[in-house]
Specification:
The structure holds two protein chains of two kinds.
Chain A: H1 8-29, E1 33-42, E2 45-53, H2 56-76, H3 89-94, E3 101-102, H4 105-120, H5 130-145, H6 155-162, E4 170-173, E5 178-181, H7 194-205, E6 214-218, E7 221-225, E8 236-241, E9 250-256, E10 259-265, E11 270-273, E12 276-279, E13 295-300, H8 303-314, H9 318-327, E14 332-336, E15 342-344
Chain B: H1 2-42, E1 52-55, H2 63-66, E2 68-75, E3 81-90, E4 99-106, E5 111-119, H3 124-131, H4 134-137, E6 142-143, H5 149-152, E7 160-162, H6 170-186
Antiparallel strand pairs in B: 1-2, 2-3, 3-4, 4-5, 5-6
Chain lengths: 354, 187
């Protein structure tokens, strides 16, 4: 059993052995500890970061950097608030039909991604759908504040607004770094993609701070990088929320590494009119909330694509969505139908824990 | 020819089965390790019984900074002080009428003994949720500060939750305000 350099098996074994020694030596010199932080000030939701770092200070610096990136994206992609010295999506909306607005590259990139998502989804995911969503938003807010007087938006009003949702009226000038809405009645609303997109960019960039093993949950939108405890092969365990929240438990858990899991559902943001619930994901064809399912979760690497795709799948029948996902590489999905039945794409099950 | 091909395919299958079995063992083992290390981390702690309460004079404290409305000292059956009942308010979905919440916190500010929703005018869904007994019960025996409602309330080694976007949790903010008041002002 002399070591023969031409024998690939021996070389492989030797390689593996030395690799293991390096790994275990590394593990001894830098024991990693688990840290957690949470914040409530970005994307109007609760966020938690779990990570493994050599010490608290390192984790604080890394998670702080992540938070600051999200905070910046949140301000840039905000359609409701203005910030000093910052041109954001509200600035673009306010200048619809008036003038092009010079913006930072992060906005251009998001809007280009929005146009791609529009093409990919045959118009189901439309970042220029703001005029319609604004009406639903106002009626929902009023309905939540005064449940007894809650009303549905009149169909006529929605149809008028839907006249101003043509994505070709969104003019992006890459050279001049400007964005212009040609239609004065048109409004951007990036709710279907912005959070996932921001999480994807922040998760990519955080590697520069040395953060290698972390799970980010930004309002139910989860991205996990590296491994739990920093131990290769030890995946992060992510719970899938049960759409029936009173069940008080997860639907199931999945094990992932270097993947994102994004869920679209009807059970968190909605209001009630005459005893019937109306949620926030609006079908561009009917201008009413989509009613194909309770929730759909998408598992793929890019959190921005996962976000857009989960909205797209929420807006189509389960069977149709299943066909679409089966045709795609590197994408898996899980649906919870109206009656609670769980449907998964063929590759999803291998991530599910017993 | 045919037999050797079948054999080849068969041996390939055997090695696959062996590999799968090996990885299953690895996965199961790693699962057990994480459960052992992180299980107790989120497990609920035993809490003392609160037999009576006495209102405290808090006029000298900066209560507005913490949205604190009332504080009572909590005593057990023997009259021993076990903690504080801190009433705080916080806005939830209803931007006009806040939630009023009582958090009972150990004297050292480290343990949440319980919460009680005193008053709320929330939307049907969120209102129903926080008024049900299972909701406040999830917070009993939790270590402070409470990080997020989903992570704290569930005793497992799950690292994060994927779900539909939920709005910032008013109850968790109200508890954290109460806990900060105890540690920063009374502690």
């Amino acid at each position: 059993m002399r070591l023969n350099s031409k024998n690939w098996k021996s070389r492989l074994a030797a390689g593996l052995l030395s690799g293991m020694m390096v790994l275990s030596a590394g593990g001894c010199t830098h024991p990693l500890e688990r840290f957690t932080t949470s914040f409530l000030d970005v994307f109007d939701t609760a966020s938690t970061i779990v990570g493994y770092a050599p010490d608290q200070q390192t984790f604080n610096e890394q998670s702080g950097a992540y938070h600051d990136m999200l905070e910046r994206y949140n301000q840039l992609y905000d359609i409701y608030n203005e910030y000093d010295g910052l041109s954001n999506l509200k600035t673009i909306n306010d200048n619809a039909g008036i003038a092009p607005v010079e913006v930072d590259q992060e906005i251009i990139d998001l809007l280009q991604f929005g146009k791609e998502m529009y093409e990919f989804s045959d118009g189901r995911v439309n970042i220029c759908f703001g005029s319609v969503l604004e009406i639903w938003h106002d009626y929902r807010e009023d309905g939540l504040a005064n449940p007894d007087e809650a009303e549905l938006p009149p169909q006529e009003l929605l149809e008028q607004a839907a006249e101003h949702t043509d994505i070709n009226a969104l003019i992006i000038d890459e050279q001049a770094s400007t964005v212009y809405l040609e239609d004065p009645e048109m409004r951007l609303d990036v709710g279907a993609i912005a959070k996932g997109y921001a999480v994807a960019r922040a998760t990519e960039a955080i590697a520069e701070t040395g953060m290698e093993n972390a799970a980010f949950s930004i309002g139910g939108n989860v991205s996990a990088i590296g491994w739990k405890e920093g131990k290769e092969g030890n995946p992060w365990v992510i719970g899938l929320e049960n759409p029936d929240l009173t069940a008080g438990d997860y639907l199931l858990t999945v094990s992932i590494s270097d993947l994102s899991l994004v869920t679209s559902g009807n059970y968190q943001r909605y209001y009630t009119v005459d005893g019937k619930k109306y949620h926030h994901i609006i079908d561009p064809d009917t201008l009413m909330p989509a009613n194909y399912m309770q929730a759909v979760s998408v598992l793929t690497t890019d959190s921005g694509f996962a976000d857009g795709l989960s909205t797209m799948l929420f807006l189509m029948p389960v069977e149709e969505g299943l066909e679409l996902v089966e045709e795609m590489d590197g994408v898996e999905a899980l649906w919870v139908e109206m009656d609670g039945t769980v449907v998964t794409s063929s590759g999803f099950d291998e991530y599910i824990n017993d | 020819m045919a037999t050797s091909k079948t054999k080849k395919r068969f041996s390939w299958l055997i090695s696959l089965v062996v590999m799968l079995a090996a990885s299953a063992v690895v996965i199961l083992a790693s699962d057990r390790v994480t459960a052992a290390v992180y299980g107790p981390y989120q497990e609920s702690q035993p809490v003392p019984t609160v037999a009576s309460m006495e209102e405290m004079d808090i006029s000298a404290y900066p209560v507005d900074d913490y949205q604190v409305e009332m504080v009572q000292t909590c005593l057990d059956e023997n009259g021993e002080m076990v903690g504080y009942a801190v009433d705080t308010w916080e806005y939830g979905f209803n931007s006009e009428k806040p939630i009023h919440l009582r958090s009972i916190i150990s004297a050292d500010g480290k343990l949440l003994i319980g919460i009680d929703v005193l008053e709320q005018h929330e939307t049907e869904y969120y209102g129903d949720q926080i008024s049900e007994s299972w909701y406040p019960d999830r917070f009993v025996g939790r270590l402070l500060p409470v990080l997020s409602n989903t992570e704290s309330g569930r005793g497992s080694h799950v690292d994060a939750i994927s779900g539909a976007t939920y709005t910032s949790n008013a109850v968790v903010r109200a508890i954290d305000n109460a806990s900060r008041f105890v540690t920063e002002q009374l502690g």
